Amino acid sequence: MPVSYDLGLKPTTLEPDEGHEDHWTLNYGPQHPATHTTLRLVLELDGERIVGCIPDIGFLHSGFEKLGEHLDYNQYVVVVERMNYICPVSNDIAWHMACEQLFGLDITPRCKAIRTILAELGRLQDHLLNVGVAGLDLGGFTAFLYGFNEREIINDLVEQISGSRFHPSYTRVGGLAQDAPPGWTDRVLDFVQSRVPPALRDVEALLLRNRIFIERTKGLGVISHDDAINWSLTGPVARASGVQRDLRKDEPYLCYADNWDGCGAPAVRFKVPIAYGGDVYARFLVRLEEIRQSCSIIEQVVGMLPDGPINVAADAEVTLPNKDEIYFSIEGLIHHFEKIMTNRGHCPPVGEAYFANETANGELGYYLASDGGKAPYRARCRPPSFINYQVFPKLVLGHQISDIPAVLNSLNIIAAELDR
Amino acid sequence: MATAEAIRALQGRFPELDLVARPLVTYPDGRASDQLWVRVPPEHLCDVARFLRDDPHTRFEQLCDLTCIDYLNYPDAAERFGAIYALLSLTHNHRLWLKVFVNDPDPTVPSVTSIWWGAEWPEREVYDMFGIRFAGHPDLRRILMPQNFKDYPLRKDYPLTGKGEREDFEVVTRESA
User: Which residue blocks in A163-265 are alpha helix, DSSP H?
Assistant: First the structure.
């Protein structure tokens, strides 16, 4: 007996499908180890070959956008970082960059530099996992461990700066929760100089010229240049199809923009890797090279990290006073209360704003609408996983069941961001 | 600059629609955001969209995002739903937002899936969350909520805690599954 609520999709059956005597239907997921996250696919199979694929999503839908309309601009950061939990800090930054666009704020140079370091650490966090899992999904467990080891160091670095290993909630409107502790930048530098390169060499030695890996990934899940644009793909997936687009170059923000400190500091120098294969292997290569570029960006930013305040000026009335003032002076305490009480505090103008960051998965943007209140009127997230996943059923047609994990991982679908 | 050129091209092609580009937000100090939006009547959406994609001055090859806002209780809002199309041109590196306003009882917008394939799932999501129908969409089903869900959860008159669906949820037992 099928379950009582009809999804309009066929249940798994060992009976042949009507009209196609040798086809049968298989439910793949939502709790299948190879999907990594909570996804369901209904596959129509001809032997092992996929002739039809219907994705069924929404298992992790938690109404994040509805919640965003009831939490204020600082509170909601706790929720956004639970979307793409592989690199939570990237979500924090993207969210508050959009808020600052709506408030019309320009953040301080030190804040920009620290956010850039964290944004790149977030990219490393994502790509180190992703290139490792590319091996894991095809049966090579060891590559996964090399990537995962280094992710632990990033978690430690995030803990040192924010107090929380995994979900840092580190940014605030117009600044950061607190400044980086002494010696933190040295540890970051040590990490990108002496930990990442050997790990990357190990992963490459295992996979890059591995005949089994190449034969399983080359020519699989091919997206052409024009299709990638028309399907709204962004990030490494689009760049592996030859689309020359990176928001860090095309719409520069933070330290990717020239004159970011207001005193003529040059933008960080890096290359945007492009591949033309459009297949799973090309996406793997693009991510490997992006890891190197991220390390180089972090080295540069650490080298020119400016001193100064991390929050915009106190008379901007946006940021909270620092904890010293709150705990040790009555004025600071009053200030703090004035800003966090529900009927007080600083509100953005009536209007709408969009801001997008180039995160590990692609363009992560927020479209905010404000009615002049403390909470957004609408907080739309442009989730790269959701937009990228719609092309998936077209990519696996004609391939084998065992190719599904490889394609799925190359699109880097994070179900929490997919369903929000 | 490029955006202004694109808007001039658009106004030149559709003079009868009286298209005006407005900034998304104006700050209290008088500065206006450089992000512009244009109101498009629903019956002309497909023509405008196709022109914006193909004209050499506009070349919006990509529909970056499609979303919707329920303007119930919004200050000075005359209409209920605004479907928002975020367009992106990779050639000229500029953006433009289109807004299409529709109202109850039958909020229907033509689908742009034939122009930008990437509109397929975002349109399903807007249908799922706001109940806006996209005429001509190949597969307009709910995408995030269960298929048997009745309401449209991101509408402003839908409460945050729901309308009791959680209490009445049908439990699937081992025998009935």
Answer: 184-190, 196-207, 211-217, 225-230, 235-239, 247-250
- The CATH T-level fold of domain A1-60+388-420 is Enolase-like; domain 1 (3.30.390)
pLDDT per residue over A371-396, tens digit each? 888 889 999 999 999 999 989 988 88
- Residue A75: what are its φ and ψ, rounded to 5°? -70, -35
Q: Which architecture characterizes domain B2-135 according to CATH?
A: 2-Layer Sandwich (3.30)
Chain B hits for A70, Cβ within 8 Å: 160
Q: How distant, in Å, are the alpha carbons of A87, B81, B98 from that of B72?
A: 35, 8, 19
Mean pLDDT, residues A61-83: 90
Taking the Cβ of residue B161 and every Cβ of chain A, the question of whether any pair is shorter than 8 Å is answered with no
Cβ atoms of B132 and B102 within 8 Å: the answer is yes
Which CATH superfamily does the domain covering A75-338 fall into? Cytochrome-c3 Hydrogenase, chain B (1.10.645.10)
Closest chain B residue to A67, measured at CA: B160
Tell me how close the Cα of B60 comes to any Cα of chain A, in angstroms. Answer: 10
The distance of A186 to chain B (nearest Cα, Å) reads: 37
Q: What would the two tokens of residue A262 be?
A: 């207001």
- ipTM here: 0.90
Mean pLDDT value across residues A409-416: 88
Q: Can you tell me the distance from the alpha carbon of A22 to that of A114, in angstroms, rounded to the nearest whole number?
A: 58
